Each structure stands twice: as structure tokens, then as C-alpha cells.
Amino acid sequence: MVHRSHHDMGGMDAGPVEQIDHVHVLWEKRTDAIMRLVTDKDRKIMTVDELRRGIEQLGPEVYDKMSYYERWITSVTNNLLEKGTINVDELGRKMAKIEARWQADGATKV
Amino acid sequence: MSKSYLVGDAVDVRIAYPPGHIRAPFFIRGKSGTIDQVVGDYHNPEELAYGRKGTEKLMLYRVRFNQTDVWNNYTGPSKDSLIVDIYENWLEPNEGALK
Asked: A63 and A74 in contact (C-beta within 8 Å)?
């Protein structure tokens, strides 16, 4: 039986803290905006507690590999799929469409 | 659910390791502290985390712990303390503590 959940790392060795300002790229700002929209008082589609639960359920390997906002958008996505706000099919099609648009624009992934 | 506490009350954090979304951090379970502040009552975040309404409201406390009680090898000043936000469902009265 594992007592400590992977994310629950308070007090563990983690090395020095990098005290620098983080520059957020556009998709990270959009992720923040999406989270605000789905949790606001008019929509109440999900809660910040559900966001956290979703992040905690990512699994240790994925949790460590992902950046802060990658964890956010993955948890938001999974929550919205669970609730039926979006479905896998439309999400897959939309992702493919955007990827094709990027390639047409010669854009590189960030 | 559990009793309400007043500032200065001695409390223990329950020792339990259920799966799920838990709002009492691992490192503080089983430790003893004192109520520093009564924050107010909020819908239970451990229920809200699963999309349930969390209609049961729980009192949230700021609990002060001595660093030397929390960490085995704490080398800082003995008067150092830390404060953790803990909901009432994770607290029990510390009957043995001297007031």
C-alpha cells in the first residue's frame, strides 16, 4: 500500500528554487483563460477542486513530464470529457484541423 | 461531523491514507498543533473534486505546528513554526496536550 500520493511532495528534497519570472506563451495564457471561463459563476461547468483532482490522477510519470499548464489543460480536457461538455470525436477532429492549419502556416509547435 | 475548535485549542491531524483528493497534506498527518485561526466554513473540497455539490460545509482552520515536531531532523531555531490550512474532518482534539 502506497501511502503518499505522488503529487503530495511537501517536505521532500527538490533542489533550489528558481526565483525568476516565468514568461507565459500564448497557449498557457489561453489555458488560464479557459479555466477561468469553465469555473466562473455563470457557467460553473467545473470547479478548481476538480482541476486539482484531475491533475493528481495523471499518474506519476505523466505528472513529472508535463509542465504546469500542460497538467492544467489535460485535467480540464478530461473533466470536460467526463461531463460530456465536449466529446472525443469532436476534439480529435478539431485538433487535426488546427494541426493542419499550423502546418499550412509553417508554424512550429511551442 | 466533528467538534468545532477555538483559537488555542490543541489538535491532532488524523492518520489516514485514503485514495482520492485529500486536503490534508501527507507530511502533516499524525502531527499535533494548535488552532491559530478559524477561517470559516466552506463546501467540502474533497466532495467538490468529484463534481458533487459538496453541500456539507466544513469549518476550515489555520493550524500552527512547531517545525521541530514536523520534521525529524529540523536544524532551524526551535521556536520556528508553520501554519497549514486544515478542514475540520481531518482534526481531532488533542486531549493529552497541556493548555
From this structure: no
Subunit contact A47:B26, Cβ cutoff 8 A: no
Q: Which chain A residues have a beta carbon less than 8 Å from that of B27?
A: 8, 10-11
B18 to chain A: closest CA residue: A3
Tell whether A95 is covered by a domain.
Answer: yes
What CATH number corresponds to the domain at position A46? 1.10.472.20
**Residue A84 in domain:** yes
Residues listed for chain B:
99
Q: What is the maximum alpha-carbon separation in chain B?
A: 44
Determine contact, residues B94/B36, Cβ cutoff 8 Å. Answer: no
ipTM entry: 0.87
Contact B25 A10 (CB under 8 A): yes
- Number of domains observed in the structure of chain A: 1
Q: What is the pLDDT of residues A14-44, one digit of tens each?
A: 899 889 988 999 999 999 999 999 999 999 9
Q: Do A3 and B17 touch (CB under 8 A)?
A: yes
All structural domains of chain B: 10-93 (2.30.30.50)
